[in-house]
Amino acid sequence: VHGGFCFAMTVDFSYELLGDATPKNGGRRIVLVHGWLGSHKVWLKTGIWLNEHFGDSVLIIDLYGFGKSSRCSKEPYSAPLYMKQLRECLVHIGWDQQKIILAGKSLGAAVSMHYILKHSYHVQKLILLCPAGTPEPNPFMLPHPGSFICKTLILKHKILYPLRFILLFLFKFLFILLAKVHFFRWVYGHIHLITATPEYELPDDTVHRVSDYCEKAKCNIVVIQGLKDWLHLEGARRFENLEKSHIKVINFSTKGHIDVCDACGDWDNSFLPNNIWDRDISDIA
Fold first, then answer.
1. How many CA atoms lie within 13 A of 256 on its CB side?
2. What is the pLDDT of residues 49-63, one digit of tens each?
3. Using CA atoms, how far apart are residues 109 and 106, in angstroms rounded to an integer?
């Protein structure tokens, strides 16, 4: 395993490279992108399986604000921002002109679709696990942890009410300081994003455009749907409605986000066919 940090846009982020940058013995270059509130760890089992069984070189990155990566304060968190980060990482390891298989889960699928619209020329296969996205930016706001703790203390100890503004400032400042500590960022990697979810920014025509770009680039698409909430069902349904020969949609039951990723690297215990990573999709059931 080759881990490292890439410095881009004045921000460093973490990635894991399983195998060598140049695959040996016919191995492929595979890029895996995690979803919201995830990290490289959700793909690690699959990456190790691909590397050990096929000799593939597998790149897994931690998106800004997740895992070991720093937060990005220059731009708001969004799928297009993460697409830029992915591009910077591929340039960093020399894969920006090489043929790759690109796979993303949930938010990672949205990032992968944004990538296809810019750089489809070197993607030979696109795998979308539970693709999610909304037509317009619509972040779901969550309370800042400092505010939550402060309000809880005031409710339990009303004597602190006159000091509420000072306490609120102190708690928020404390979390800002903790977020800059590498160990804290490593263990609690989600601290940077718990104030709002990223904006997926997938207009209604995105699926059609991704399909067209992939068809021109002779890039097959496999869509795997395992989550039944409306956000993920809608993403898979849009691809299914296209009825294109280069698109294959697979539906199977799963318990959650991590199960979807594990199923892609654990054929004995999954409902997925073991050839989803192949370039050809004609034999996928």
1. 4
2. 888 888 899 999 999
3. 5
